[in-house]
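Handout, page 2. Input:
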Amino acid sequence: MDEVFGKMAVVQRCRVHKQRNILDYLPKEMRRKAAWRMQAARALEDVTQARKELESIARDLEKSCPAAARSLREGLEETLILQGLRINNALLTSLASTNLIESAFSQAETYCGRVKRWRSGDMTQRWAASALLWTEKQFRKVRGFRHLPKLQAALNQSVLKPVKKKAA
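Output:
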């Protein structure tokens, strides 16, 4: 990503997968409360408040499960990118997860799974394109799609000001 977009890249990490990774570190009896707290923090409209709450959760987890706390802190900023751009909650909910793209790829995989013998690279590309066109017919509207122009404007604004990334 950095090779193409450099410091101007705006990357939103999948909240669903990040939360699942964090919860996997925790004992079963702690998972429900931690999940509830993380979801409540990410539901806050103010990104600064959300960041503070997530950091508070990480501090609490530090005592009982340092690996979960490290996982929460790693990528914390990237899970709040859309919130920081102040986009509509319905659109944020749709885009904060990779489920949209994973669903399209899963359907395309099903479509391409019918091929028994791949003959050439060209054939592979034709089938992949055909599969994605086939899955496109099954797409629904993205919740909050009417706010996409606002997202585009917010992204254009953020390109003017490079996103500060924490040093690795």
